[in-house]
Amino acid sequence: MEKIKVLIVDDEQTITQFLMLGLQNEGYIVESAADGMQAIAKAEKFEPHLIILDVMMPGMDGFEVCRMLKKKGRKLSIIMLTARDQVDDRIRGLNDGADDYLVKPFSFEELLARMQARLRNQFPEVGDSLQAGPLRIDDRRKETYLEEEVLKLSPTEYELLKYLVMNQDIVLSKALILDKVWGYSFNGEENIVEVYIRSLREKLHDKDRKLIRTIRGAGYRLDVR
């Protein structure tokens, strides 16, 4: 699978760091730029699928950056961020080529939903299929394959395996898995992760625990090498 690349353009370091960490945890490849000129240079080299672009920046503002990037003609989705809640600004951003507009403060979940909608619309060829060694996930059809075998997974097993595949070769703690698969509002015990990992191993014929490895004291890692 070709991983989705996202460029964050914002002069507020705290916002940039927050978004980078969150998006990297979601499996995106992320880079950042602190001003308009740097954004244009980074976009040329990095070739992102999507840009999260702040409007209010020193020097070249987000409107101008958006116009310049869209003039280049490359397929690219732009979501503009701003503290302004003025209809005129939203219209201006959309007229300059922005694909969506989000007003600060915003929830990370809403940003993710808007990103996924734009990516499905503009890049249907990426993002719907995940591959890790013998495992393939067709996210559009919600189907999982081990080689050519279709796995019968519950919705939670599916989401857990997808999260492991998205973060293959990375150790994931139980707490992180709970947050990403069960959600922040889940009030149950961390041991539920062990139960679902055990079930996945059975369905993946992973009796030796070589595919989903337990890293003592740290969590779990999908190892397909």
If you had to describe this structure to a student in words, what would you say it looks like?
- The chain is α/β, with parallel strands linked by helices and 225 residues long.
- The chain has two domains: 5-122, Rossmann fold (3-Layer(aba) Sandwich); 129-222, Winged helix-like DNA-binding domain superfamily/Winged helix DNA-binding domain (Arc Repressor Mutant, subunit A), CATH 1.10.10.
- The protein contains eight helices and eleven strands.
- The strands form three sheets. The protein has a five-stranded parallel beta sheet, sandwiched between helices. A four-stranded antiparallel beta sheet has the order 6-7-8-9, covered by helices on one side. It has a two-stranded antiparallel sheet with strand order 10-11.
- A hairpin with a 2-residue loop joins strand 6 (129-132) and strand 7 (135-138).
- Helix 2 (36-46) runs parallel beside helix 3 (62-71) and helix 6 (155-166) packs across helix 7.
- It is elongated.
- The protein starts with a strand and ends with a strand.
- Residues 5-119 form the Response regulatory domain.
- Residues 127-224 form the OmpR/PhoB-type domain.
- Residues 127-224 bind DNA.
